[in-house]
């Protein structure tokens, strides 16, 4: 038994050599940080030389390193301020106002896509215009015939650029409003804005005073000729209700008034009141 255990635990000369090498490597790895610290000598900074160099730099640049590198400071040195209308302003005049080529390219791209400035604060919404740029330029902006305090937007004719002039309405909300307006055929009243995804009561209260609605601009639905696919876009009707309207028309002929739609069981009075302003019986 002892002989078997001894044979099991015994090591060959090759195995002993391998273990010895492994132990030496472990000791070497552990010792490296201490050897490095012992060999390395930190360079001591000469405080007097550093102070002298800093004083020389400040003398050459009184504003300091940060002021020298600051884009705002560099722009102040080249900015020439004058009264201007930002709509269709030539690039060379934007340049005189202190804007970079990249900023001017963004402004011209905005114009090319139909963007316009309706009030002073619109400039601040342009990507690339810094807060410092806006504060410097805002007092000099003059937009003919536009007083921001009296700005009232007609909801059924406004484009996305004009909608973004509303307080609290950015490009995302403007896009949603226009998309919903297209599905409806136009707004009959301002309260319908609360049906736009993400536009809650608080946001509505913030913008309702800046809006008006011309209900005569809504797009009517020719209920006796419209197809299923087009009627399906009306947000007040679901799939089954649209199908029921088309099927009832196929079975009973053209609709002559809202009273005919009342015969469709799955369309209640609330839905009828919502769609009534949009219906036409040609």
Task: Provide an overview of this structure.
- The protein is built from 15 helices and four strands.
- The chain has about 280 residues and is mainly alpha-helical.
- It folds into three domains: about 65-145; about 150-220, Orthogonal Bundle (DNA polymerase, domain 1), CATH 1.10.150; about 220-280.
- It is flat, with a radius of gyration of 37 Å.
- The N and C termini lie far apart (about 110 Å).
- About 10% of the residues are buried.
- One of its GO terms (cellular component) is type II protein secretion system complex.
- It comes from Mucilaginibacter gilvus.
Distance between the termini: 110 Å
- Briefly note the structural class of the backbone: mainly alpha
List the total number of helices: 15
Q: Give the number of domains.
A: 3
Question: Over all CA atoms, what is the radius of gyration?
Answer: 37 Å
User: For this entry, what is the oligomeric state of its chains?
Assistant: single chain
% residues in beta strands: under 5%
Mean pLDDT: 83
Strand order, biggest sheet? 1-2
Q: Fraction of residues in helices?
A: 40-55%
Largest beta-sheet details: 2 strands, parallel
Low-confidence stretches: 63-77
Overall body shape? flat
Order of helices and strands: HHHHHHHHEHHHEEHHHHE
Quick one: how many beta strands? 4
Organism: Mucilaginibacter gilvus
InterPro entries: Endo/Exo/Phosphatase_dom_1, RuvA_2-like
GO biological process, one term: protein secretion by the type II secretion system
Protein name: Helix-hairpin-helix domain-containing protein
């Amino acid at each position: 038994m002892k002989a078997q255990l001894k044979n099991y635990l015994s090591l060959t000369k090759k195995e002993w050599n391998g273990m010895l090498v492994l132990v030496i490597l472990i000791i070497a790895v552990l010792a490296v940080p201490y050897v490095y610290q012992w060999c390395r000598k930190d360079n001591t900074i000469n405080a007097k030389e550093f102070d002298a160099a800093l004083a020389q730099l400040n003398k050459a640049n009184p504003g300091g390193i940060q002021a020298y590198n600051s884009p705002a400071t560099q722009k102040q040195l080249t900015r020439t301020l004058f009264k201007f209308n930002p709509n269709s302003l030539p690039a060379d005049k934007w340049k005189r106002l202190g804007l970079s080529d990249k900023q001017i390219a963004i402004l011209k791209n905005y114009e090319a896509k139909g963007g316009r400035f309706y009030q002073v604060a619109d400039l601040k919404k342009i990507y690339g215009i810094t807060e410092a740029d806006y504060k410097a330029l805002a007092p000099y902006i003059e937009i003919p015939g536009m007083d921001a305090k009296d700005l009232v937007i007609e909801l059924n004719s406004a484009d996305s650029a004009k909608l973004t002039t509303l307080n609290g309405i950015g490009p995302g909300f403007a896009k949603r409003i226009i998309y919903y307006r297209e599905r409806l055929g136009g707004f009959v009243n301002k309260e319908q804005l609360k049906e736009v995804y993400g536009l809650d009561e608080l946001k509505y209260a913030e913008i309702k005073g800046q809006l008006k609605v011309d209900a005569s601009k809504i797009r009517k639905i020719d209920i006796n000729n419209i197809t299923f696919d087009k009627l399906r876009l009306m947000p007040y009707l679901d799939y089954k209700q649209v199908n029921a309207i088309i099927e009832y028309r196929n079975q009973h002929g053209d609709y002559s008034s809202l009273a005919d739609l009342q015969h469709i069981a799955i369309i209640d009075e609330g839905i009828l009141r919502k769609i009534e302003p949009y219906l036409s019986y040609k």
